[in-house]
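hi! just following up on the protien thing from before. the input was this:
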Amino acid sequence: MRDLQFDSDYYQRHYRNPRTAVTSRLEMARRAGFIGAFVNYLDLPVRTILDAGCGMGWLRTPLRRALPRARYVGLEASEYLCRRFGWLHGSIATHRPRTPYDLVVCYDVLQYLDDREAASAMANIARVAHGALYFSALTREDWEENCDQSRTDGAVFLRGAAWYRDRLARRFRPVGGGLHLRRGLDVHQWELERLPGAGA
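and the predicted 3d structure came back as:
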């Protein structure tokens, strides 16, 4: 992980201050609502959720509202946030749970890891996610064309989307909107609901 203090100042700038925040509680609630609605639509049983790099924990309440039978685990590298909110301290690159999770959320985390650490994280995600995965990371194209650079942390490792997609495709198939299902999972979609070439 790059040399960065994920301390109070970092979260004040990127999350708490509305003039400089990269996201909001409302946006994160919408994201959680989408994840929960899609997982429920596919009738996937979700008893455990891992929010890898959970940050301020803004996905926690809306995810638990959408998936009320699920136990939520927040995994976070920031010692500051772990002390403040009680998250499990660790990294998705090395997290070894006793049992895998039904749903893993890894949102805007891996751009903070160098290629070796990020590759380890991708391999570990394949081990710990045995159902659905919501995955997103800031890519080179996102930085150049999609994000607000005045708010987005640019001191990260920017890669092309193919770097992530190639690794995800080894164990998961994309179903749209950042959601992926573990290959071999007994979930069926109508043909026009599936992404072209996603397979089973």
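The mean pLDDT is 93.
The helical segments are 8-16, 25-41, 60-66, 79-85, 115-128, 140-146, 161-168.
cheers
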